[in-house]
Amino acid sequence: MRTHPSDYLKAIAKREIAWLESHATSELLQHPLDNRSRAQKSPAAHVKLYKKFLEIADHILPQGELSKPVLWHCDLRPANIFVKNDRITSIVNWQHAWVGPLFMQARHPQLVAYDGEMMLHLPDRCEQPDKERDHEEKKRLQDQVERSLILRHYERGIRKASPLMNEIMSLPHGQTRHDLVTFAENTWNGDIIPFRKSLALVTRKWKKIIGPMPCPVSFTQKQVNAHLREGEGWMKHADFWESKQGLITRDGWTTNELYESLKKQYEEYTTRKASRKGVNPLRNLVWRDGL
User: Fold this and answer.
1) What are the tens digits of pLDDT across the range 184-214?
2) pTM recorded for the entire structure
3) H helix or E strand, kind and range, residue 84
4) Judging by beta carbons within 10 Å of its beta carbon (0-12, 13-18, 19+), is residue 96 exposed, middle or buried?
5) How remote is the C-alpha of 139 from its chain's centroid?
């Protein structure tokens, strides 16, 4: 039986609703390292968002070839590719491979991925830095220019090598659509806030993304205000984890060599939070590898 690409999105929402209604309780929240919002702990709040998601699922993905089903290996890197005599002989670690719409699978390779502001040359003020701070600023701007130029070069090449990929990358509000689907997966053990933010953003930009058809869902001002209050604390958590990216996972795993240092940093971070909330900052510990 042929299916529509939107069935992929609906399957995500229906799966999550079924699990939430059958199994979700506050005791099952697997977040040993931070406090979550009130909505995060409410199964009903998650279900309400997924039902909104279902109402607009038919309109999120682009039509035609841009959403055809393709196989994606989500960990395709040199360590998983075997080569002999300049020929690929094997690709391993397929356990997380999956089939989904091309629009959801297409992305920039990690080598060229960059989502900051494009800057193709250094500003004039960086030509003769005269302070240590200016040197640091020049170094940051040089990195920004380098990453911008690499991405620009890749995008120019992809226009010729893969017009279909270029069309996806150039799709108006493509990132807004993509983020909504990405954040829809497993909000209970992940985060409800980015999913809710993405859903609200799609409703706000509906006419630009979809056209004149009225959006079937909406958020009240009260709901928006609640999101902003909860989102403020979430952003502080996000900033902390962003600063530790590559050193520790969100569920607390790190190496034995980094354990003591990161544990101390986390305890200092939670102590600052606890001083404002009156909670025990040491009730959670960072996990070591192998324990």
Assistant:
1) 988 998 889 899 999 999 999 999 999 999 9
2) 0.70
3) strand 81-84
4) exposed
5) 27
